[in-house]
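Need a sequence for this fold. Nothing fancy.
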């Protein structure tokens, strides 16, 4: 998680908002009865999405910029 922590930090809010507008509106009864489970799933998805962004976007862009400017 160390190298991906900034991507997780940046992506967690949009991820929570997207999930809020999709899951909470359509499955509000499930969310209200299983709120801890939903929070755990949201947190895992935000972490996985942040790691994905780190490897797909951050690393290649960093490598490109390092090659171009250093």
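Here you go.
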């Amino acid at each position: 998680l160390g190298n991906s922590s900034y991507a997780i930090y940046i992506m967690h809010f949009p991820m929570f908002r997207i999930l809020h507008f999709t899951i909470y509106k359509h499955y509000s009864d499930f969310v209200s009865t299983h709120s801890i489970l939903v929070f755990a799933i949201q947190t895992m998805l935000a972490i996985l999405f942040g790691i994905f962004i780190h490897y797909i976007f951050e690393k290649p862009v960093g490598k490109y910029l390092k090659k171009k400017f250093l």
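For context: The longest helix spans residues 35-69.
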